């Protein structure tokens, strides 16, 4: 039934990315092929396909509980898919041993939904934490202060260095979390609901930050959200995740003009 | 027919509970196995271990000391009249000393620590799990099991025995105080009598036992916290069940320890 | 950073202190089991180990000097106990010392007591076997005590019977005790006897004085000095008097004792209660004593009127009168 629907939709499908890759001569940094994942009777991912090209901002939209977070966690090996193929920067996740996986992870930044700052550490220690195991990547670092300061300045919070996370507001926490994500200078950043739980103004600030960082470091970004405004501002390309598959694919303007009822449901106010 | 339906339902409920219990035990065993596997793999999170040791050891000392003191006081006050009835009041230090060192000191201290430390670990790791801090650690290249679980279990395993030593000493001091005030027994005589009554058969099994107590407290706390269910309710449940399960396991371990030491020491 | 350092310092103190405490406890316990001091081993053989255990104390003259470290059954009546003794006790324990099993208090743990033997003996050396005495243990003591108790119960029953018969005035002692007249008589007699013997004593001293004066100083008695016959007679009288009075004295003392015993109701009671013969004898001797005193009084009276001593007695009376007048 799903396949029937796919045929009806204008922009879609598994073979599509092959074409676009050739067109733009872009390198794929993330590639998901026919990934399935289910929790008991609940089939969250049902043959999901996705490609993220180097330097692009891709937004994956879906309803709550549609499996966006599960998908993104499968990408960094926090969860293992039931079946399917996941490749990040040319390496298949499921075949990697712990050490190689950790090395690979240092190239992927992950901004968690609730910021996920370590409550028991200061902002500075929070930022230093990812460096504990990835010293080699940055060379021998004796003094971490300049690195921490640089990351905090990127998000405009250099003065909070010695505060504890619970002394910060929600928006500040999110920005510190972003700074932490950036400290290892990742090539790919995965954003899990970057604007959730924030007021619209703060959300806009965060989105602006994301864009400026993307410009500054030339990272590829995979953004998961259900926030249409966020998607409109930041997306270069969008994928709609419905019923466990990549239901529709295209730019914001293309998808918002779609007449498919399931696609329309996303853009309805 | 009408009666047989609820009874069948009851049985299946009990069987379900039983199944759940064995699943828990099994998961806990796997968790313990993973602990030992990761314990001996590099890198070693020494700084975090020290921090946890401080949090669990020094920070619990006050609580353990106060409980120990009161237990020593109360135990002596309560058993004095009976001993006087038997005309064996001069045996008070022997009795209190042996019961504190062998059983009461370790068990009370461990239970207090199960309340303070196991629930603390359960809640802390639980909330870290819920707010994805554990995932964040994993992603930033630090093995959260090593960083959070191994250090905490190791810290409790090392700190609880020391806390028990302090608890025992303070309990004996409390007992000696009562004997000193009520029975005119000098502190020197009290401790002379206590150490006269004690043998290695009392001290060594109690010390070995206390390491297992520490291990159980850390293991259960971490297990419950690490596999916390989503949501704030999950954190509460983690903290709660950590205390209940740790206390229960403490008594089981205590029973096994007494049983085994009985065989070894033929006492 | 400084905060972490302080924490680590505190943690270090905590850990080191805890470990030291544990080690001290272990040392104190081990010290009492003589694990850390130089020791030597001796043995003793007992018939019954009465609950002795490894680790029980060994005391020499009441001081803890070692511990039991092995109990072996050699045959059905022989148990060998090995003891570890502190090395510095080697000079004090001799080969003839005696070991026995005892308890520390009535309900305390078992221990071995070593008591120095009598006589001179050489110092003990490692591996020696001590002599042992199978002293009664608490249990034996208890069984003995219970037998004693039974005996005591029987005895009390007997005593009860005796005292009943006594109060009922049956038997001779009963009569003796219940007969108040006789008791009074007895009392009076004894008082008389006392007085008499005092007087007799006084008289005898006086007589001695007189005789002395006869022999050496008084010229008025010169006549008598040559009259050896009279002198001898007087001497005889005096000697008789002396023996009589000493006998009376002795008798009254005996009587006093008897009375005291009767009054206390101790000792001789059971003897007396059954020996009616003694009571008869007592009665007879009372009569004899009474007669004896009467006679003695007569003698004394006669002495007063004797021509030789009359003057002396008069002098005494005069002196008394003078004293009274003054």
TrEMBL record, chain A:
> Domain ABC transporter, which positions?
30-268
Keywords attached to this Swiss-Prot or TrEMBL record, sorted alphabetically, are: ATP-binding, Nucleotide-binding, Transport
Q: Say yes or no: keyword Thylakoid present.
A: no
Q: Which Pfam families match?
A: ABC_tran
Region (Disordered): which ranges?
1-20
**Range of residues in the leader sequence:** none
GO terms of molecular function: ATP binding; ATP hydrolysis activity
Is-annotated flag, keyword Transport? yes
The identity of this protein, by name, is: Phospholipid/cholesterol/gamma-HCH transport system ATP-binding protein
Source organism = Maribacter caenipelagi
UniProtKB/TrEMBL annotation, chain B:
UniProt entry tagged with the keyword Transmembrane:
yes
Q: Which InterPro entries match?
A: Permease_MalE
Transmembrane stretches in the record are 60-77, 153-178, 198-223, 235-260
Look up the domain of life of the source.
Bacteria
Coiled coil located at which positions? Answer: none
GO cellular component term, pick one: ATP-binding cassette (ABC) transporter complex
List the Gene Ontology MF annotations in alphabetical order.
phospholipid transporter activity
Keyword Transmembrane (UniProt): yes
Which Pfam families does the record cross-reference, listed alphabetically?
MlaE (PF02405)
Query: Keywords in UniProt for this one?
Result: Membrane, Transmembrane, Transmembrane helix
- UniProt xrefs under PANTHER family: ABC TRANSPORTER PERMEASE PROTEIN-RELATED, PROTEIN TRIGALACTOSYLDIACYLGLYCEROL 1, CHLOROPLASTIC
This chain belongs to the protein called: Phospholipid/cholesterol/gamma-HCH transport system permease protein
Organism of provenance = Maribacter caenipelagi
Q: Taxonomically, what lineage is the organism?
A: Bacteria, Pseudomonadati, Bacteroidota, Flavobacteriia, Flavobacteriales
UniProtKB/TrEMBL annotation, chain C:
Protein's recorded name: Phospholipid/cholesterol/gamma-HCH transport system substrate-binding protein
One Pfam entry for this protein is MlaD
TM spans (from-to): 12-30
Q: Please give the InterPro entries that the UniProt record associates with this protein.
A: Mce/MlaD, MlaD_Phospholipid_Transporter
Q: Which UniProt keywords apply?
A: Coiled coil, Membrane, Transmembrane, Transmembrane helix
The chain positions of domain Mce/MlaD read: 40-117
Q: Where does this protein have coiled-coil stretches?
A: 279-306
Note whether Transcription occurs among the keywords. no
